[in-house]
Amino acid sequence: MIGAGAFGGWTAWHLARRGARVVLLDAWGAGHPRGTSSGESRILRFSYGEKSLYSEWTHRAREVWRECEAEWNVSLFSPCGMLWILGAENDYSRASVATLNRLKEPWERLGAREVAQRFPQIALEPEEFALYEPGSGFLRAQRAVQAVAAQVERLGGEVRIGWAEPPGEGASGRGRTPLRRGAPLRLDAVQVTRDGAGAAGRSELRAGTFVFACGPWLPRIFPGLLGRRIVVTRQDVFYFGAPPGDARFDAPQLPAWADYETEFYGTPGCDVCGFKIANNQGEPGFDPTAGERVPAAATLEAARAYLARRFPAMRGAPLVRARVCQYERTPDSHVVLDRHPEWENVWVAGGGSGHGFKFGPALGEFLAGLVLDGGQERIPAPLRLGASAHSETGELREKGAY
C-alpha cells in the first residue's frame, strides 16, 4: 500500500483485518503536513446532490468511524451537525433531500428566521435558507490517519517511510521500461527511495498486489493515466480566535457549515484549534512536495470579509492559525478508483477533490474487497480510469466538494 492518507490507510486496515499481509508505505509518514489527509478537521456530511454513491459511502463510513473510536478509545468524530446555506432551491438540494430520505438520515429545512433562533451566531439574508443535517459533524483528520496507521501495525502490518515508483512510470524517469499493450502483466516489485542521514538509498518492495493511494502525487507517478485527470489545487485554510470566554463558536454549540453559492465552508472550534474558514475554490498547479505553504494575502482578505458578513460577532477576530493544503481535483469531483490497465495486480485510488476524507473507511472497505475478492465490474463508471479528463487544467468548477 503506497500512501497512508485516508484512502490508503483505511484500505490497508481493512486488508489487515481480513488477514492479508500489509506494508503501508508513505513518503513522510501518516498525518504529515504535506498530505491532503492532514490538518485538524474535515467535515462529515451526507448531501451530495445526484452523486448519491458518496452519501451511501459516508453513511457506511460513519458506522466505522464510531465503531473504531469506541474500540480504539480515541475521539475521532464530533457529531455537531452540518448546515448547508443556500440561496434558493436547486437540483442539488432536491436530489440531496431525496437521498437523505432514502437513507433515513434526519434533516431539517430552516428558514433565515429559524437559523437566527437556532444558531444566532450565523447571519442569513431573508431569502436564504439552510439544509440542516443533525447526524453530520466533523472528523479529527490528522489524529485519525495516525490512529489508523497504528492499528494497521497492531494487526500485524508494517508501516514504513519511503517514496515508491513503479517501472515505466513516474516523472523521474529512473528505471523506465516500456509497458506492453494488450493482456495485463503482473508487477513484481516497485522501487523505494528513502533519503536522510543514515537511511539514504534505494531498495525494492516486492508484493503480490500494489495499491497506489498517493493523493496529489498520483499525477506524477502515473502521468500517462492521470496527468490530465487529476489537477492539484492550492487551498488556503484559516483559523480565527473567538473573544475570551466565548464558546458560541465551538462545537457543539455551532455546527459545521458550507455556503453553496460562495463555496466558503468551515468547522467550529475544537480542541486547541480556532474557528476554521476556507474556500472550496483553489488555484491549480500547486506542487505538493516543493510548494511553499504560506497563505496568500488575497485569500485571507476574502475570508475576513466573509467572516464579518456571515458571522458578525467574529468581525475583526484575530487570525490564530493558518495553513496551506491541497485538493487533487477531478473534472466532476468523482474519485478515481480502478485497476491499472497494464498491471492486473496494481490498483489506483485518489482524486478525493476535497471531499473524500469522510468516506475513507467505506472506500477502503470496497477497495479491499476488490483486491481480495475480485469484481472489478462493480466499480461505478464515473470512478473508472477511462472517465472524463481535463482538457485544460483550468476546468475545475464543480460545486459541492467539501
Quick description:
The chain is α+β, with helices and mostly antiparallel strands.
Overall mean confidence score, pLDDT: 92
Total strands = 20
Query: Approximately what portion of the residues adopt beta-strand conformation?
Result: 15-25%
The coarse overall form would be globular
Indicate the low-confidence ranges by residue numbers.
171-180
Distance between the termini: 26 Å
Please provide a written account of the structure:
The chain contains 9 helices and 20 strands. The chain has 402 residues and is an alpha+beta fold. It has a single domain, classed as D-Amino Acid Oxidase, subunit A, domain 2 (D-Amino Acid Oxidase, Chain A, domain 2, 2-Layer Sandwich). The strands form 5 sheets. Strands 4, 5, 6, 13, 14, 15, 16, 17 and 18 form a 9-stranded mixed sheet that branches. A hairpin with a 6-residue loop joins β10 (189-194) and β11 (201-206). The longest helix is centred in the first third of the chain and has 21 residues, at 52-72. It is globular.
In terms of topology, how is this protein built?
Blueprint: H1 6-17, E1 23-26, E2 41-44, H2 52-72, E3 77-78, E4 82-86, H3 91-102, E5 108-111, H4 112-118, E6 129-133, E7 137-140, H5 141-154, E8 158-161, E9 163-165, E10 189-194, E11 201-206, E12 210-212, H6 218-221, H7 223-226, E13 231-240, E14 256-259, E15 264-267, E16 275-279, E17 283-284, H8 297-310, E18 319-329, E19 336-339, E20 346-350, H9 360-373
